[in-house]
Design brief:
Helix content is 37%, strand content 24%. The chain is of the alpha+beta class. A five-stranded antiparallel β-sheet has the order 6-5-4-3-7, with helices on one face. Strands 9-10-8-11 form a four-stranded antiparallel β-sheet, with helices on one face. Strands 1-2 form a two-stranded antiparallel ribbon. The longest helix has 17 residues. The radius of gyration is 30 Å and the shape is elongated. The model has no long low-confidence stretch (mean pLDDT 80).
C-alpha cells in the first residue's frame, strides 16, 4: 500500500510542481504525519524532494527531475506513449489518465497523433456500446447470450464464452466457445443482436484457433477477371489489392484476383451494375447475366410511377 501511495505523491508533485502536506493528506485520505513519513521515505530512496517555505512553499521536487530516466531511453518512453495513444484511439483504453500520468513522469509531450473509429458512418453509438460490452465480457469472463444471423439469414440463439475480439479485413469478429456447438466459433459482430451479459462466470479454456484455420472462416474461391469502368475506380482501390488492378489504355481497369464462389460473390459484383463486365470464368459470367435478366423482369413496368419513391424522386428534380 505504501509503495502505491509513494508513487501517487510523486505523480502529484510532477504534475503540479508542488503541493502542501495538507493537500497531499486530503487527496490521499491519510494523516499529515503519514505524508511526512512518506516524504522521508522518498528522500531516503534518492528522490530529490524538499520542503520550501513562503507563498509558493510546500513539498516540491528538484527542477529537472525525471523518474527512472536511466531505465528507459527517450525512444522507449516515446514508444510507450505512442502505444497508449493507439490503444486509446481504438477504444481498448477509454480513460486517458494513464497516458497523462506517464507523460508527466517522463516529462514528455503526449502527442495526439492517431485516431481510429471502427463504427459505421452514421452510427448512433450502438456498435460502440456493443464493443464495450464484449470487451467487459472477455475481461470479466462473463458468459454471453445473443441471437446470431447465419449466412442463410436465419437467427439462432447462442450462449458462449467470449475469448477474443479480432479485426480482419474490414470487420470485427468475436471468437468464443459456443455451448450449443460445443466448440470454438467465430461470430461476426454485425450479425450479433440482443447481446447481453449473464451473471454466470466461466473458467478459461485453451486458446482459440487462428482465425484463418476455423471452418467458419473458410470460403472456397476461384480466379476471376473483370473489366471495370473508370467511373468506379474509387471503389476498386478501396476494395481490391492495388497489385491486382491493371489500368488499360482506354481508361478502364482490369481486376484479376481470387473471388468467393457462390451467391455472395456474384451479388457483390452485381453491385457495380453496368460498370463491371466479367471476362472470366464463363460460368460466373453466365450466372451474373441470368441474375441481370431476373432484375430486368422485376422492372418491366419501370415506366410507371413508383408508388413509394415517386414523390421523393419528384421532389429531388430541379425546378424550372
Amino acid at each position: 500500500m505504501q509503495s502505491g501511495r509513494l508513487f501517487e505523491i510523486l505523480y502529484i508533485l510532477l504534475e503540479r510542481g508542488g503541493a502542501t502536506v495538507g493537500e497531499l493528506a486530503a487527496q490521499l485520505e491519510v494523516s499529515e504525519r503519514t505524508i511526512r513519513r512518506d516524504i522521508d521515505a522518498l528522500s531516503a530512496s534518492g528522490v530529490p524532494v524538499y520542503a520550501a517555505r513562503g507563498r509558493r512553499g510546500g513539498v516540491r521536487l528538484l527542477e529537472g527531475f525525471v523518474l527512472s530516466k536511466s531505465l528507459l531511453s527517450a525512444r522507449e518512453q516515446d514508444e510507450i506513449l505512442y502505444a497508449l495513444q493507439t490503444l486509446r484511439a481504438t477504444g481498448a483504453v477509454q480513460d486517458g489518465t494513464l497516458l497523462t500520468r506517464l507523460s508527466a513522469l517522463f516529462r514528455r509531450e503526449a502527442v495526439d497523433w492517431i485516431d481510429a473509429d471502427f463504427s459505421d458512418w452514421g452510427d448512433t453509438g450502438e456498435r460502440r456500446a456493443q464493443f464495450d460490452l464484449l470487451k467487459a465480457a472477455i475481461l470479466e469472463r462473463c458468459v454471453l447470450a445473443f441471437d446470431y444471423y447465419g449466412q442463410n439469414g436465419q437467427a439462432t440463439h447462442r450462449t458462449a464464452e467470449p475469448v477474443k475480439l479480432r479485426f480482419k479485413g474490414i470487420s470485427w469478429y468475436l471468437q468464443a466457445w459456443c455451448r450449443e456447438k460445443q466448440g470454438f466459433r467465430t461470430f461476426k459482430l454485425s450479425r450479433m443482436e440482443n447481446v447481453r451479459l449473464l451473471e454466470e462466470r466461466f473458467v478459461p479454456r485453451d486458446a482459440p484457433p487462428a482465425l484463418d484455420s476455423t471452418g467458419a472462416a473458410f470460403v472456397p474461391t476461384t480466379g476471376i477477371v473483370v473489366r471495370f469502368s473508370p467511373v468506379v475506380a474509387f471503389r476498386l482501390y478501396d476494395e481490391f489489392d492495388r497489385a491486382n488492378i491493371t489500368p488499360q489504355p482506354d481508361g478502364s481497369l482490369i481486376v484479376q484476383t481470387e473471388w468467393p464462389v457462390g451467391a455472395w460473390g456474384a451479388g457483390y459484383l452485381l453491385s457495380y451494375g453496368s460498370h463491371a463486365e466479367i471476362l472470366h470464368p464463363p460460368a460466373l459470367r453466365r450466372h451474373v447475366a441470368a441474375e441481370a435478366k431476373k432484375i430486368m423482369a422485376l422492372y418491366q413496368n419501370a415506366d410507371g410511377r413508383c408508388p413509394v419513391w415517386g414523390d421523393i424522386m419528384d421532389a429531388s428534380k430541379p425546378k424550372g
